[in-house]
Amino acid sequence: MFKKILIANRGEIAVRVLRACHEMGIAAVVVYSDVDRASLHVRKADEAYPIGAAAASESYLNIGKILDVAKRSGADAIHPGYGFLSENAKFAQACADAGVKFIGPTAAAMDAMGSKTRARQAMEKAGVPVVPGTSRGVESFDEAGQIAASIGYPVMLKAAAGGGGKGMRLVNAPEQLKSALEAARSEAERSFGDSEVYLEKAIVNPRHIEMQVLADEHGNTVYLGERECSLQRRHQKVLEEAPSPLVDADMRRRMGEVAIRVAQAAAYTNAGTVEFLVDAKKNFYFLEMNTRLQVEHPVTELITGLDLVHLQIHIAAGETLPFRQEDVRLRGHAIECRIYAEDPDNNYFPSPGKITLLLAPSGPGIRRDSGMYEGWTVPIDYDPLLAKLIGYGSDRDQAIARLGRALGEYFVGGIKTNISLFRRILRDEDFRAAKLDTGFLDRMLKRPEDKPADSKAVEAAAIAAGIFAALGAVNNAARSGSGAGDTAESNWKAAGRREALREG
Amino acid sequence: MLYDITIDGKSYRLELNRADGRWSCRLDGRDLEVDAVLARSDVLSLRIGNIAYEIKSERVANDLHSNDLHLWVDSRRFAVEVHDPRSLRGRARTGDDHGPRKITAPMPGKVVRLLVREGDTVEPGAGVAVVEAMKMQNEIKSPKKGTIRKILVNAGAAVNAGDVLAVVE
């Protein structure tokens, strides 16, 4: 087993991996950029090395600097977390060349999944269902027209090198095809330096369901059940749950077996996720494979009772999977909320800044994976994910009830967060009835939020405002060291000063 | 102690007195039985009669270059203004729609580009600048119709929350 692992990441995932290291008796080395000196992962680490400026290209994406720290610290493995270098085949190769174990798949397996058209070709060969369409770039408008007519409108144009919605166009009718093709091509060229565009049948308001797989380096591959990830905003996942309310035991087995074929076709090792689109008739189609640990891995951990990061480390150390497919049992239901530093009342603007007050939930069925603490200043330079709050219950209703209760306890002061969005989702009738698809959140957010007037709460706020003002004055006076005799006068002075400041 | 408290445009007159650790409270002429414990400087455990509340207090920078007081009653947020009715400045109000208005950055970040030049006329809601923070680009909009009198930042500049980007009149 490894003695020392370098964690090439920051935020909640760096803390998550660090905890696994400590649980396994492995020393944890972290790296940090100039604006992350005060971050939680540095506080909790055994060794911490500065690696440069805030810009990720100067620090967390800089392969040379990270490998240099691996060498200086004597780390024998690197865990990349998610994002940053986690799906960078060059980095995986550079680790191998430097004699440091990369905790993840090989560079060759990542490359096989990198291009969407190449992945489609490999999957078709392995008998994996893909969305009907082409697995090569379309050469001409005429060719595109013929293919579109044969698979039927609406169709989707997608960039082969694409991601994040770039180079993607929905085409509803033949007369839109020409301009959409030109637009998708030029956007793909601008975004990825590659104008290759392919065509597939558009699945309207699909569900997005993914399957967790785990493969050791001795040919054993298992699936650990699915996650429902249909709740998205701007193509970004917001809330995930496991199991999917849509998937029954038979569909799970079929999806799981396909996921194993996908992994084996790429000679995949370590933890990975196979993403599927599911249409209204429950047909599922291979979308892509994510060659890393996912943000939403905790929901799978809660319903399987397995620790995916422990298993990743054991696999990377060359061990055989300690269980077989038939030993995997799903129990209960888990739901995860991604807590972001953003303002739901102001168009989801990012909201970095200092956390002045943090009240964290706990209690039955609650797991919190967090990278924040009270007094910490959230930097402007990185992804706004602060923490993940996960609720577990013996069934979906209980998971929702516990998560709703915990969201009520959660309070982050000083910055804005999307906690209120999750309270709203969990109250929503369609959500509670599990009527989910990728259009769910947009539809919910278009409806006006019904905020019932509560005269009792307003009254409490008014009284509390007065009490805070009165007590604040006393506390300020006490803190400034004035004697008991003159507090009454200085209270009013302090109150007056605060008023003046507020109005100024 | 006497306070005028404004919540959602509605005003409340609050009389509070404390003797021997007990509060006496009169809200808009009604006597209420109130008991309060300050759990920490910004968290108050409040009882009105026997109904219990946990109330969190938060100061939030606004785009008028000052602080708003927000009180959270359980999970509900109220923007609150507290005035001493005996103070002369108690009635001062901001937010006048006439005259120059500052356009400020709602969050710290980097100015990616400017969408207007000095002298341009803008409609309410027109984009003035794009500020990037946390890998997201956000368009900052004009609060009113008018002419851009001044631009105070350059593309590429780092800004803090509340920094003035431009002035529209």
Structure description:
- Chain A has helices spanning 11-23, 40-44, 63-73, 89-98, 107-114, 116-125, 141-151, 177-192, 249-265, 297-304, 308-316, 396-409, 419-427, 429-432, 440-446, 455-479, 487-503; strands at residues 4-7, 27-32, 47-50, 77-79, 101-102, 155-159, 169-171, 197-201, 207-215, 221-233, 236-242, 270-278, 284-290, 333-340, 342-343, 349-350, 353-354, 357-359, 366-370, 377-378, 385-393, 411-413.
- Chain A is an alpha+beta fold.
- In chain A, the strands form 6 sheets. In chain A, strands 13-12-9-10-11-14-21-19 form an 8-stranded antiparallel β-sheet, with helices on both faces.
- The longest helix of chain A is centred in the last third of the chain and has 25 residues, at 455-479.
- The termini of chain A are far apart.
- With 169 residues, chain B is mostly beta strands.
- Chain B folds into 2 domains: 2-91, Glycoprotein, Type 4 Pilin, CATH 3.30.700.30; 101-168, OB fold (Dihydrolipoamide Acetyltransferase, E2P), CATH 2.40.50.
- In chain B, 0% of the residues lie in helices and 60% in strands.
- In chain B, strands 4-3-2-1-9-8-7-6-5 form a 9-stranded antiparallel β-sheet, with no helix packed on it.
- In chain B, β3 (22-27) and β4 (30-32) form a beta hairpin.
- The two termini of chain B are 41 Å apart.
- Chains A and B meet through β16, α16 and α17 of A and β1, β2, β3, β5 and β6 of B.
